[in-house]
Design goal:
The complex is a heterodimer of chains A (116) and B (116).
Chain A (H helix, E strand, L loop, with lengths): L2 E3 L4 E5 L4 E3 L2 E3 L5 E8 L6 E7 L7 E2 L2 E6 L4 E6 L8 E9 L8 E2 L3 E6 L1
Parallel strand pairs in A: 2-12
Antiparallel strand pairs in A: 1-4, 3-9, 5-6, 5-10, 7-8, 8-9, 10-11, 10-12
Chain B lengths: L3 E4 L2 E4 L5 E7 L6 E7 L5 E8 L5 E2 L8 E7 L2 E6 L8 E8 L8 E2 L3 E5 L1
Parallel strand pairs in B: 2-11
Antiparallel strand pairs in B: 1-3, 3-8, 4-5, 4-9, 5-6, 7-8, 9-10, 9-11
Classes of the chains: A mainly beta (116), B mainly beta (116).
């Protein structure tokens, strides 16, 4: 079974600084997708970034980028120029293959605080 | 991105009664819908996966007679919590995916259930 591990229950970053959230996963699949979701206090899940395992290039979305290390099964999220609105729970998630009907496996989450 | 709505956003009921939660995809046809449960400060736990017109597939440990899921159309899935008890109090989130166009699940805003 696939597992997703987020070893940092809480992280804190100063506004305008950079923070990296860690995620590791375990799978025997060769084709899979990895996601970072943000859950603000409203509890609406928001997709931050997606990485296809077959792509070597790390995904980027504006201030958000990932460091995808396939051999190490590591998928960290870097938030640059942190803003107060980035404060939220962040969940790493895994999906086997391209089939959107496949279920997501979530990590336990990292709560990010952004301070002035 | 596509929009998923849930209704109601918050419901309070008496112990022993049944509660129905609706999940709608507003601008796309959801071939698959997922129901999650989230306890405070915890991750999302998948309860079941449903495909339109088929019986839902429940995760291990989830009572299918307790949590009735119906996915009668490509835009609507319902979760009915039968004979609710205080331990069923939780935050319930649905998500939907489609086989065309999008490569992700879209999440509803969630429903907070409180059983007195």
């Amino acid at each position: 079974a696939q597992t997703v591990t987020q070893s940092q229950p809480e992280m804190s970053v100063q506004e305008a600084e950079t923070v990296t959230l860690s995620c590791t996963y375990d799978t025997s699949e060769s084709d899979y997708y990895l996601f970072w979701y943000k859950q603000p206090p409203s509890r609406q899940m928001i997709l931050v970034i997606r990485q296809e395992a077959y792509k070597q290039q790390n995904a980027t979305e504006n201030r958000f980028s990932v460091n995808f290390q396939k051999a190490a099964k590591s998928f960290s999220l870097k938030i640059s120029d942190s803003q107060l609105g980035d404060a939220a729970m962040y969940f790493c998630a895994y999906r086997p293959g391209p089939d959107t009907a496949s279920k997501l496996t979530f990590g336990t989450g990292t709560r990010l605080q952004v301070t002035l | 991105g596509a929009v998923v709505s849930q209704h109601p956003s918050w419901v309070i009921c008496k112990s022993g009664t049944s509660v129905k939660i609706e999940c709608r995809s507003l601008d796309f046809q959801a071939t698959t819908m997922f129901w999650y449960r989230q306890f405070p400060k915890q991750s999302l736990m998948l309860m079941a996966t449903s495909n339109e017109g088929s019986k839902a597939t429940y995760e291990q440990g989830v009572e299918k007679d307790k949590f009735l899921i119906n996915h009668a159309s490509l835009t609507l899935s319902t979760l009915t919590v039968t004979s609710a008890h205080p331990e069923d109090s939780s935050f319930y989130i649905c998500s939907a995916s489609t086989t065309s166009g999008y490569n992700e699940q879209f999440f509803g805003p969630g429903t907070r259930l409180t059983v007195l």
